[in-house]
Amino acid sequence: MKLSVPGRVTATAVVATVSLLAGGSIAGAAPAGQPAVAAAPDIPVANVKAHLTQLQSIATANGGNRAHGRTGYKASLDYVKAKLDAAGFTTTIQQFTSSGRTGYNLIADWPGGDTNQVVMSGSHLDSVTAGAGINDNGSGSAAVLETALAVSRAGYQPTKHLRFAWWGAEELGMVGSRYYVNSLSTANRSRISGYLNFDMIGSPNPGYFVYDDDPAIEKTFKEYYAGLGVPTEIETEGDGRSDHAPFKNVGVPVGGLFSGADYVKTAAQAAKWGGTAGLAFDRCYHSACDTTANIDDTALNRNSDAVAYAVWGLSQ
Predict the structure, then answer these.
(1) Average pLDDT over residues 157-175
(2) DSSP letters spanning the chain
(3) Active-site amino acid positions
């Protein structure tokens, strides 16, 4: 997550069969005469953590970080792209320049679905130069990747078109995602029915925060967590600080999840979520200690399942 702009299970997830209907309402069952909707799969947290281990290894081998314009970033992108290519996605690398260095976005389209109705999920793949960026934002990047791979494993064919993205240079001010949005024609922007953003979802002292930008997307995430019996709060720490902002600014409906950065967990939040009051949600935010040791497995598991829940529910 970008720093400079100020603030705006291990148990298996309970996954209901829900879909986003044309009117934007969420229903628990298909109407009479219509086929039942597909349930989202459980996302194996071990798979997500395996991606994080790979991103950590990449950082370690490349000066300790995966920052924009550095070899660790390009190696991270190559790792994600290889997984997607092998799974049958159509991948595109978009190149841009920022701060005198070349940056890259990775876009992956799943064949099929109505390309006039695109459900897009994304995360930034770059770290800050100070460290490996495993929570910020290896966590979101790995969960989005594993959700995309789950689409492939399931042979999922939704009504809407699925697109996944990994952004470069978010830490410099959402540069990559802004470049992508600015490169789209007005018509292509209008074809994105929703953009879901996942930036920091495995914080070690986690909260469960849901973006409140679009009511239908917000409701989807809240419904998932209600099924787990986990209370949520509206996300305010990251308003305007991550890659949903360029999409929102041009009128694309956006939503997402967040487990907290350098804000301090209150006593009330610790009472409902566990963890430690009086400490930051992520004490290693933008620091060298943001390694694979800086992840809460329960938060990562729940949030990864929530990514899939939303992708499945909003694309049918």
Answers:
(1) 98
(2) --SSSPP---SPP-----EE-TTS-EESSPPTTSPPPPPPPPPPHHHHHHHHHHHHHHHHHTTT--BTTSHHHHHHHHHHHHHHHHTT-EEEEEEEEETTEEEEEEEEEES-SEEEEEEEEEEE--B-TTS--IIIIIIHHHHHHHHHHHHHHHT---SEEEEEEEES-GGGTSHHHHHHHHHS-HHHHHTEEEEEEE-----SS---EE--SSHHHHHHHHHHHHHHT---EE--TTTTSSTHHHHHHTT--EEEEE--SSSBPPHHHHHHH-S-TTSBS-TTTTSTT-STTS--HHHHHHHHHHHHHHHHHHH-
(3) 170
